[in-house]
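User: Let's play a game. I give you a shape written as tokens, and you guess the letters that built it. Ready? Here's round one.
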């Protein structure tokens, strides 16, 4: 009976993976179709094919997409026509799920001209509630807030910002981004005699990830605790400046930029590491994090964390039990927190268990997906 149950569970996991890949392929196909060809000749030719194929079946959205008087450059550039093309002849849908506010804006517009039909749900993740609003104005989501059925936020911190922008409180709710806890196996962190302490960060190399400050903090700690290694996984426009900073600090043998890695490689690196570090900050353009998945993945695997008190981070760990929080851009405070954990490896197993319990309770994908289905069903029923 146990073998049959295990075999059925494996079949269910394989079926779920096939569904995930199919949906991902469909999403990539739709994304390609949404792209407007850069060449004017190709753009006109593509637009002519769309009009010839769809004008008889979907005259209203086609007429809107070509209405230069009302929509100006967006219509004249044929960008609107290419935006609606992937959706013509499809649906209606029960639910249209959008991730990030700008996608919600596009979906609300497509809904308004009859290109798509369905209840609209938008999940906000961080940048869309901070830097995007700063760039486009506090009223940027006004139409979306009127049309949308629900507005989800990944942290209570972002939820407060979203409501301040005008999101209707009765249609605004928390829904976290979770992790597949079965794929991130827990193991207590133990330091073997003579083994270097291994720190890890997984992040894009951009300003809001605060990597300059975590690098400087680790450099301070390394002068007192030279038997440590700090590996940074990810890529981005700041790679060269960060590499120069590492060289200037004389940390070339201690701190390593590993570049992009596959998910399997990242899990292997998590398994080899002892502590997770993330020094995120509010960027100069106002950009802020939501709740980084790496913080949840590493806690699921038992790594204590040292992070900044940024955005929703205090919700993502159990302060003092699964991780330590320090002020943004405070190199000395971050160095002190890292040193504290290095000097007390006996705390790691218990912190790891607290982190795993926190993830199982609040960030388990299976529970979150069940709640999302319940939300969809409640919206469909209204």
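Assistant: Ready! My guess for every position:
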């Amino acid at each position: 009976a146990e073998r049959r149950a295990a075999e059925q569970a494996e079949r269910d996991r394989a079926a779920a993976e096939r569904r995930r890949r199919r949906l991902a392929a469909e999403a990539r196909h739709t994304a390609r179709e949404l792209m407007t060809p850069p060449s004017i000749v190709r753009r006109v030719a593509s637009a002519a094919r769309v009009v010839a194929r769809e004008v008889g079946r979907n005259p209203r959205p086609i007429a809107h997409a070509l209405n230069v008087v009302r929509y100006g450059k967006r219509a004249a550039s044929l960008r609107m026509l290419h935006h609606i093309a992937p959706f013509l002849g499809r649906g209606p849908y029960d639910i249209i799920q959008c991730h990030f506010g700008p996608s919600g804006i596009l979906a609300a517009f497509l809904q308004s001209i009859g290109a798509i039909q369905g209840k609209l749900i938008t999940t906000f993740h961080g940048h869309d509630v901070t830097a995007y609003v700063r760039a486009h104005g506090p009223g940027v989501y006004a139409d979306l807030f009127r049309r949308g059925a629900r507005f989800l936020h990944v942290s209570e911190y972002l939820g407060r910002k979203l409501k301040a922008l005008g999101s209707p409180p009765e249609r605004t709710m928390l829904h976290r981004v979770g992790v597949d806890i079965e794929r991130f196996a827990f193991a207590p962190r133990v330091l073997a005699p003579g083994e270097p302490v291994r720190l890890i960060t997984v992040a894009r190399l951009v300003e809001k990830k605060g990597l300059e400050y975590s690098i400087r903090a680790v450099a301070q700690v390394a002068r007192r605790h030279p038997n440590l290694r700090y590996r940074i996984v990810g890529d981005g426009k700041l790679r060269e400046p960060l590499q120069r900073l590492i060289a200037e600090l004389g940390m070339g043998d201690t701190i390593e930029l590993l570049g992009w890695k596959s998910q399997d490689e990242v899990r292997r690196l998590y398994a080899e590491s002892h502590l997770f570090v993330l020094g995120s900050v509010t960027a100069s353009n106002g950009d802020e994090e939501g709740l980084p998945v790496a913080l949840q993945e590493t806690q699921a695997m038992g790594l204590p964390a040292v992070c900044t008190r940024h955005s929703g981070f205090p919700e993502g760990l159990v302060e003092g039990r699964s991780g330590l929080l320090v002020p943004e851009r405070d190199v000395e405070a971050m160095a002190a927190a890292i040193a504290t954990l290095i000097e007390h490896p006996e705390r790691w197993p218990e912190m790891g268990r607290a982190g795993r319990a926190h993830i199982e309770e609040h960030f388990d994908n299976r529970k979150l997906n069940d709640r999302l289905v319940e939300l969809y069903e409640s919206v469909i029923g209204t």
